[in-house]
Design brief:
The protein has 429 residues and is α/β, with parallel strands linked by helices. It contains 13 helices and 13 strands. Strand 7, helix 8 and strand 8 form a beta-alpha-beta unit.
């Protein structure tokens, strides 16, 4: 192990790694493992969607609505059913939105800031609003609540979800704690799926704030890497758990087809209790006459139903599963002697969470970028991009072709080794 080496041996190792790194830089690479984007061959899977509506007769929903025209605030019936299947909810509790579920989340926070929740004081009139942020987590979530000036509280993540002892203590006596971000299945970036116990505790915990809200971003609910049910993570429904606990209005569920069909050109949805949905409809009506019904129609004609989604996602899995396997192979083979390296091995989702030796993450990302491999910025998985341990790096393996991913991982491994040796030598000076 590197930590067992004497200074002279570490210096010799650094010389070898410096040479290896210089050779990599000389190749002039331009590779990307930064964002969780589908690869081109994944996008190709959904090309038939564009030809599902070709004539006038194709433009009508099952209830006779002309989808070319205005109206239908909450979505056409068949699109509500499709998204309800993804969200594990009833169609009447679903509003189908535009292309981005993140926009739905931003708008939901904005409504609470401006109007409050079911009659509560608008959050914008409060002196302070706090929000719980499981870490490592999704940088765009953090940006939403940062943009409203909320105080963001990092919550440690365990193998079965957020540390519920921490969460329960945070919400019990502080009414300024208004919500929590959750990616409950194949989480971004760790790939964690919340246990039944975590779901039940979130649903039933005592909150000083009666308007506390769980933002349940189930972005990866159908993004399995395996076709067999026994190899897929299962998630308890937050709606049922909240209802059983006597807190039926505590949650808002979100999902989209962004990584199912076309990012930026899919459909999104929110599911919530009847009271929440009724309030949302009233508050969005000044801004929305109706979302893109033609796109809703195209998606229904293409994906059809839950079985159709599952068959389509199986094709995605066939493309990305080998990439996840390659990451595990490369990291295990390349970093066996580097102390302090840990990474997740999820059964679905789009990311792998990598923990470098403390104090090395920024240096690793810096080295990788200089060598032609772009990664998600170190610190991005923490609120305000402030990882106090400088350890966590999000690996996004989906975009590059397998051959390019292999090269990018070799570069990454070299950068981890070099940064680790540099840090050890600093400690010996």
């Amino acid at each position: 192990m590197y930590t067992d080496l004497e200074s002279a041996d570490l210096k010799a190792l650094k010389t070898r790694l410096d040479d290896e790194y210089a050779n990599i830089k000389a190749r002039g690479l331009a590779l990307n493992m930064a964002r969780g984007k589908p690869a081109a061959d994944q996008l190709d899977l959904s090309m038939p969607l564009l030809t599902t509506v070709t004539g006038i007769d194709d433009c009508f929903s099952e209830d006779g609505t002309d989808c070319r025209n205005y109206g239908v605030l909450d979505g056409i019936p068949e699109a509500k059913r499709l998204m309800a299947a993804m969200l594990d909810d009833k169609p009447e509790n679903v509003i189908v939105g535009g292309a981005s579920s993140l926009t739905l989340m931003y708008n939901a926070v904005s409504r609470y800031v401006a109007h409050g929740a079911l009659g509560s004081t608008p959050w914008g009139k409060l002196d302070n609003v706090k929000w719980l942020c499981p870490v490592p987590g999704y940088d765009r979530h953090f940006l939403v609540t940062e943009s409203f000036g909320f105080e963001l509280i990092p919550v440690p993540m365990n193998e079965d979800g957020p540390d519920m002892d921490f969460v329960e203590q945070a919400v019990a006596n502080d009414a300024s704690v208004k919500g929590i971000w959750c990616v409950p299945k194949y989480s971004n970036p760790a790939g964690t799926t919340y246990s039944d116990e975590v779901v039940d505790r979130l649903a039933g915990m005592k909150c000083a704030a009666e308007d506390f809200r769980i933002f349940w971003d189930n972005a990866y609910c159908v993004h399995h890497l395996f076709d067999e049910a026994e190899n897929q993570d299962q998630l308890k429904d937050i709606a049922q758990a909240c209802a059983a606990a006597g807190n039926p209005n505590r949650y808002l569920k979100f999902a989209s087809t962004s990584k199912i069909t076309f990012p930026g050109a899919g459909i999104s949805a929110i599911a919530a209790s009847g009271e929440n949905i009724a309030e949302i409809k009233i508050l969005i009506s000044p801004a929305v006459i109706g979302y893109d019904k033609m796109n809703q129609l195209r998606h229904v004609k293409f994906l059809k139903d839950a079985d159709g989604i599952a068959k389509h996602m199986s094709k995605h899995a066939a493309i990305i599963h080998p990439k996840f396997e390659l990451v595990q192979k490369k990291l295990a083979a390349g970093l066996a002697e580097v102390d302090g390296c840990n990474w997740t091995n999820p059964r679905g989702g789009y990311f792998i969470s990598f923990d470098a030796p403390r104090g090395c993450a920024k240096r690793i990302v810096e080295l990788a970028k200089a060598a032609g491999v772009t990664m998600t910025g170190a610190g991005s998985t923490w609120p305000c991009k402030n990882d106090p341990y400088d350890t966590n790096i999000r690996i996004a393996p989906t975009l590059p072709p397998l051959e390019e991913l292999s090269v990018a991982l070799d570069v990454f491994v070299c950068c981890v080794k070099l940064a680790a040796v540099e840090k050890l030598l600093e400690g010996k000076e």
